[in-house]
Amino acid sequence: MELSSLHSVHKALFSGTSVFLYSGSFHDEHTAQLISMGEQFVNQAKGDRALRNKVGFLMVESYQNIIRHRTRLSEELDRNAGRSMFLIRQQDLSFEVVAVNAVPDHEAGPLSKLLENVNQLDPEQLKRMFLNGLQNDSSSKRGGAGLGLIEMARRSGHDLVHQMVNVGADHQRFAMRVFIGNDDLPRFSDGDIDELHEFVVAEDILLLCKGRCTEELRRTVVEMISKDLDEGAQRPITWTKCYLSATELMSAVGKKDAGSLFLIGRSDRGHSVVFGIDMDPADAIELESTIDMLNGLNEAQLQERYDTAVPGQQQDGETRSVVLLDLARRKVAPMQLRRIPNGDSEFVVVEVIV
Fold first, then answer.
1. Cα–Cα dist 164/149, whole Å
2. What residue spans define the domains of the chain?
3. Over the stretch 230-261, which tens digit does the pLDDT of each residue have?
4. Who has the most CB within 10 Å: 231, 265, 286, 298?
5. pLDDT grade, residue 140 (50/70/90)?
6. Cα(278)–Cα(280) distance, rounded to whole angstroms?
7. Which CATH superfamily is domain 21-203 in?
8. pLDDT for residue 173
9. What sign results for the dihedral spanned by CA atoms 193, 1, 269, 291?
10. What is the CA radius of gyration of the chain?
11. Which residues on neighbouring strands pair with residue 200, listed in sequence order?
12. Residues 6+ apart with CB under 8 A from 142
């Protein structure tokens, strides 16, 4: 992964206090974790129960739409232009949920027409349309005359913005953006979505988290990682250990209240674990020196040092060495580090191939 460009992408596309992006294997089992994550985002922003319910519904409905309505594609198309993606961004009490999946050409037109009709209605008309849909009890592939979409529009209070992009093989890439809140969070444009999707495809990203990592959020992400993140790879223990070590390290070396970045992506040598955080320049230099030293040790030497460290019994100042050893002993290639000037700090990005 090109670490030097990651900070620019991080600033340009992942604005917001908290961001969660998912483009791995889509399972129903993730639904509970998404509800929990939405609640945590709202709680961090000191939102009320009504907002928690709205955000939770919009997240789950958007994610379920991907599961219910995406079509079977060739592996080449599924990992590239037709790739599915889910994202939530939060800034204060504003949220944006993005869902991307491929749909057949013959569904794209009716779906766009339905969304255009929904966006033209006021709250009372949306309510009547929803009730009529319930009474008609129709059962189309789009879920009873788009009842889910109607309810999303009602709860968000904003238009359901969408775009269609031709990806070939008689399919369109459908991207829908749902917004709730005020203008604290600049909304994505169609161009932003295209650029973001290209970034996810180019780096083969499975999961990305950005923001302040609370203990509750860590547990939620671990639950998602422990499922089949990358279908067939069966590496939940490795991913979980890397995530916990990376977040522990960032907590130990990062500046106070600094938001962190963590992602897992595929690599031609395995999986790429990348994490970044703002650091004091002196601490960044020390971390770089430690990583250079660890890269010079062989597998047996790393394991011996790790076994000697007795994980879990360190003082705060020793946490950095232990979690770095845990990451280093799992690597299949030298760890990479980039220091990027960021005001009076440095945004430090580390990549570990496992």
1. 16
2. 21-203, 213-354
3. 877 778 899 999 999 999 999 999 998 778 89
4. 265
5. low
6. 7
7. Histidine kinase-like ATPase, C-terminal domain (3.30.565.10)
8. 97
9. negative
10. 22
11. none
12. 69, 107, 110, 111, 114, 149
260: which residues sit within 8 A by CB, 6+ positions away? 209, 210, 211, 212, 213, 247, 250, 254, 275, 276, 277
Query: Across the strands, what pairs with 87?
Result: 21, 98
What would the two tokens of residue 4 be? Answer: 């030097």
* Strand runs labelled E in 244-330: 260-267, 270-279
Tokens of 140: 């189309």
Instruction: Read off the tokens for 160.
Output: 């359901």
Whole-angstrom distance, CA of residue 85 vs CA of residue 97:
11
CA 80 to centroid of chain Cα atoms:
17
Above 70 in pLDDT, residue 143?
A: no
Rounded Cα distance between 137 and 144, Å, is: 6
Report the pLDDT value the prediction gives residue 329, as an integer from 0 to 100. 96
Give the model confidence (pLDDT) of 56-107 as tens digits: 999 999 999 999 888 889 999 999 999 999 999 999 999 999 999 999 999 9
Q: Which two tokens stand for residue 291?
A: 């990583």
Q: What are phi and psi of 167, to 5 degrees?
A: -115, 5
Q: pLDDT tens across 1-42, in order?
A: 888 777 777 776 666 788 999 999 998 889 989 889 989 999
Residue 141 has pLDDT above 70, yes or no: no
Residue of 345, 347, 342, 303 lying closest to 325 (CA atoms) = 303
Distance, CA of 213 to chain centre = 13
pLDDT at residue 145 tops 50: no
Q: Which residues pair with 71 in a beta bridge?
A: none
